[in-house]
Amino acid sequence: MEVESSRASARPLNFGVSPLVKHMGKCFHRVLTVPDGPEKTSVLDDLHACLLEARNSPYAEIWVDHGDYPSLCALVNGDRAWLMYLRYNGDAGFSSRNPGYEGPEKAVVHYYLSNGQRDEYPASWAYSTDEVFAALEWFAANKGSPPSITWFNDSGDGNTSPNEVSKCWIEGRG
After folding, report:
1. Range of the domain at 50
2. Is residue 3 in a domain?
3. pLDDT tens digits, one per residue of 124-133
4. Residue 134 phi, psi dihedral angles, 5° rounding
5. How far is CA 101 from the centre of its chain?
6. Distance between CA atoms of 37 and 65, rounded to whole angstroms?
7. Is residue 104 part of a domain?
């Protein structure tokens, strides 16, 4: 397996409730911030519309956050998608793993980021796009790790789920 980049591009700037929509080259890109309060319902509707629109593009990079963090990124290639969950600034975070994957061990899925960069990740890390989009909507509504996803802790802080309180938070580094 050859991986061109070990991580998705740096988390984009937070653009508030107004979503940023771009079609840069091959990649549909959207950033949504889910506020607490009455605007939340509107943003959840915007996310649903965004996910419907993203299905028209072969590649997508979609970020959903709750006022900076936590934040969930989905990279999409057709019917396959991968997730990265960030808990705080500087967090290596968690990335998805699909325990139900039954394909070739060395298979990879390539993704295009909004900046044109091409990344590859093992196919065993990807879920169906439908599952990932459902996870994005769950995250937006519940402000936590979607229970339907199996995670790998890329930060190595000993937590088994993005929902656990990190030692970094307790020590004031998060």
Report:
1. 20-170
2. no
3. 999 999 999 9
4. -65, -40
5. 19
6. 15
7. yes
Q: Kindly report the pTM of this predicted structure.
A: 0.81
The predicted structure's pLDDT at residue 165:
65
- Matching residue, tokens 């290596």: 92
Query: Where are the alpha helices (H) located in the chain, listed in sequence order?
Result: 40-54, 129-142, 167-170
Q: What is the count of structural domains for the chain? A: 1
Burial of 47 (0-12, 13-18, 19+ CB in 10 A): buried
Query: For residue range 6-54, what is the model confidence (pLDDT) as tens digits?
Result: 334 444 433 333 333 343 457 999 999 999 888 999 999 999 999 999 9
- Say if residues 97 and 109 touch (Cβ distance below 8 Å): no
Burial grade of 54 (CB within 10 A; 0-12, 13-18, 19 or more): buried
Question: Which among 62, 19, 10 has a CA at the least distance from the CA of 39?
Answer: 19
Token code pair at residue 45? 């509707």
